[in-house]
Design goal:
The protein contains eight helices and six strands, in the order ββαβαβααααββαα. By secondary structure, it is of the alpha/beta class. It has a six-stranded parallel beta sheet with strand order 2-1-3-4-5-6, sandwiched between helices. α1 crosses α2.
Length: about 220
């Protein structure tokens, strides 16, 4: 069994370094989106690195959870696990969806998608602020603008019984919401994939073991 991981907006495989998983883990690197590329087409392109000849699982973190959901519909993963993320557009904050309808995001210069570090540290609730800051320093702001645009305009509405969400009760960016099967990390914040890695690792391992034993896919 292989687990393919898709990191958050602008992030990379460093967010997975603190996980302890029982199966082979393969991070998927971001690729550059084409101009005005829809998230479905982007997800199809990025999914070509996945070997579908053997059983596999997906992990998507934050914005990576949207990509994982899109790939979930295209391929046939044994299980899909979303961390600090959403599975349908209805699980997104209404304010975000409203902003998406206004189309005002197109007027925002790309450089503004590089937030001041003290604000980012607060919003993400990061304890490992050095890692978060390093990731933000390496973020492509053009990619970040594309990703936020796709996030607030996402159209997916149909949940899958084969998807598990792991959300933090104190997540300021994406609070727990919706009817998707969900495990809660008490006092977990948006950066908990790093700060609460042990607990999240246990939940991921248990869910994949359950998927294998029950053969529910």
């Amino acid at each position: 069994m292989k687990i393919y991981g898709i990191s958050g907006l602008g992030a990379d495989k460093r967010v997975f370094e603190f996980l302890t998983l029982d199966y082979e883990f393969i991070p998927i690197n971001w690729i550059t989106p084409h101009k005005n590329e829809p998230i479905k087409e982007y997800s199809k392109r990025i999914s070509t690195v996945i070997n579908t000849h053997n059983d596999f699982c997906l992990i998507g973190v934050s914005f990576g959870g949207l990509i994982a959901t899109e790939i979930h519909q295209l391929l046939n993963p044994k299980a899909t696990i979303l961390v600090s993320s959403i599975h349908t557009k209805n699980e997104l904050r209404p304010m975000y969806r409203w902003f998406g309808k206004t189309k005002l995001i197109q007027l925002i210069p790309s450089f503004l998608f590089d937030p001041p570090r003290f604000i980012a540290n607060y919003v993400f609730g990061a304890k490992n602020t050095k890692l978060l800051n390093d990731i933000l320093d390496d973020t492509d702001v053009t990619f970040a603008k594309w990703a936020v645009t796709e996030l607030i305009n996402w159209k997916h509405t149909t949940p899958s019984e084969y998807v598990l969400k792991i959300n933090g009760t104190n997540d300021k960016l994406i609070p727990p919401k919706g009817n998707t099967k969900m495990e809660l990390i008490e006092n977990g914040e948006h950066f908990m994939i790093v700060d609460r890695a042990d607990e999240i690792s246990n939940l991921i391992n248990d869910h994949i073991q359950y998927a294998i034993k029950t053969n529910f896919r």
